[in-house]
Amino acid sequence: MDRHDIAVVGAGPAGLQYARELADEYDVAIYEKDSDITDRKKSTGGTFPEMMDEFNIPESLAMAETDEVVFVSPDSRSRLNVDGFVLEYGDFLEYISEEAQNHGAELNLDSNVTGYDTDTKGAINSINVDGEKVEADLFVDASGPEAVIAQDYLGLNPNEDDRWIGVEQELRGGYYDGQMVFEFGDVAPGGYAWAFDAGENTKVGVCWSKEFFRKQDGEGTLQDYLQDWIAQLELENNSVEEVHAGSAFSYPFDVDRSDDRFLAVGDTVASINPLLLEGIRPGMQSARYAAEITYDAMEQSDLSARKLRGYDQKWAEEKGKSFRKQKLAQELVYQLNEERLNQFVEKVDELDENLVEDFVHYDLNLRDMWQIYPSIKGRDLARVGRFISK
Ligand SMILES: Cc1cc2nc3c(=O)[nH]c(=O)nc-3n(C[C@H](O)[C@H](O)[C@H](O)COP(=O)(O)OP(=O)(O)OC[C@H]3O[C@@H](n4cnc5c(N)ncnc54)[C@H](O)[C@@H]3O)c2cc1C
Question: What string of DSSP letters covers 56-112?
Fold first, then answer.
C-alpha cells in the first residue's frame, strides 16, 4: 500500500499548482486518471499577465499575446485595452507538472480515484486508486467539477442549473490578431461565444449556464450553436486542429472547502470567476491559499477541520465579497434581452482606464457596476432582492 504525506486527486492547474507549492517540503503524490498530462483538452487557456507573474509562467507557453478585449452584442461593440495571453494549454500543464516533479512531487497518470475510506471518527484516511488503497496524512481533491471525494466528504450538493458547459474548436489559421472577442446574445443564449487569437490558430467556442440558457429560451446543443458561430465568423479556413470541452459549477454561494485531513481546490469547489468564467487564475490562487494553510498545519501536526478552516477563511477574505458581487452581475447580465445587452456593451465602452483595470481584476464596486448596467427594470430589483435573501 502506498503512503504519502499528501495525496492530491487530479492534475489540472489547481492540483498541479498545489503540489508545486509544497513538494519541496513534503512527500506529495498526485493521482490523475488521464494517461497524458498534455492531453487535457478542456480549456482555451485565455489568461492575464497577472496570472503569468503571480505563478511564474513563462510567456513562451503562450500561443498569442493579446492587447484588446472586445465585447459584442447584437448591435454594439466595445473595445477595451486589456493585455492577455492565450496559452498552449497542454504545454502549460506540462510546465507546471514538471515544476512540481522537479520539486519532488510524484505524478501518477492512468490513476483513477474512485472513492475514499474513513477512520472510526469519520475522518478520511485513504483513497481508492484503481482498486488499491493509498494512505496519506492529508488529502486534496483537485478533480474539477467531478469532485470525486469532496462531493460526498464535504456534502456538496450541486444543482445542475448552476453548471456552465462549453465547447471550443481550435481552427487552423490566425485571425483576430491581438484580440479576445466575447459575443453575447442569440449566438449563445444565457452565456457567450468567443474567438481568441491563438497565433497561427484561432480558438472559437460557445458556453452557457444551463439555467440561463433555459431562461433565455435557448434550443439546441452546444455543437449546433458552435457550428452557427463558426459560420457567422466567415473564416477562410475552418479545418479543426483540436476540440476542447468541459464544464464547471458556479454556485450561488460559497461552500465548505475543508474538513478533517482534507482540502478541496479549484473547480472542485467552484473557484471559477462567476462573471466571465475565468477559472485558471482563481483555481491556482485557491491552491496557493490551501498550500499556505497546509504548511502551517503540517508544521503544527494539526490537520483537524478546525485548523484547516483557515483556508476557507483566507478564500472568504480574498475572494468571498468579490465573487458574491460577480455572481450577482452574472445573474443580471446573462438574463438581459438584446436591447439591454446593446446598452450594456455601449456602457462598457465608456469605462475609463482605471475602471477597466478594476473590471479585469473583478474589483468593480457595486456603484461602478450599476454605471455600466442598462436602465434598471423592476425585474432586476426582484432578482437582486432574491439574491440578497439567499
Ligand atoms: C471549453 C472551456 C474553455 C475554458 N476557457 C478558459 C479560459 O480561457 N481561461 C480560464 O481561465 N479558464 C477557462 N476555462 C476554465 C478552466 O479551464 C478551469 O476553471 C480550470 O481548468 C480548473 O482547474 P482545476 O485544476 O480546478 O480542474 P480541471 O482542470 O478540471 O482538472 C481536474 C483534473 O482532475 C482529473 N480527474 C477528474 N476525476 C478524476 C478521478 N476520479 N481520478 C483522478 N483524476 C481525476 C481530471 O482528468 C483533470 O485532469 C475553460 C473551461 C472550458 C470547459
Answer: T--GGGEEEEE-EEEEEETTEEEEE---EEEE-HHHHHHHHHHHHHHTT-EEE-S--
Kindly report whether the global pTM for this prediction surpasses the value 0.90. Answer: yes
Domains located in the chain, CATH noted: 2-37+89-157+252-324 (3.50.50.60), 328-389 (no CATH)
d(CA 172, CA 220): 26
Ligand 1 pocket member 248 (CB < 6 A)? yes
Tens digits of residue pLDDT in 238-272: 899 999 999 999 987 778 999 999 999 999 999 99
Give nearest CA residue, ligand 1 atom 52.
Answer: 43
Which residues are 191's β-sheet partners? Answer: 208
| Ligand 1 neighbour 166 (Cβ under 6 A) | yes
Residue nearest atom 2 of ligand 1, based on CA coordinates: 43
User: Helices in 316-352 by DSSP H: which ranges?
Assistant: 321-333, 338-349
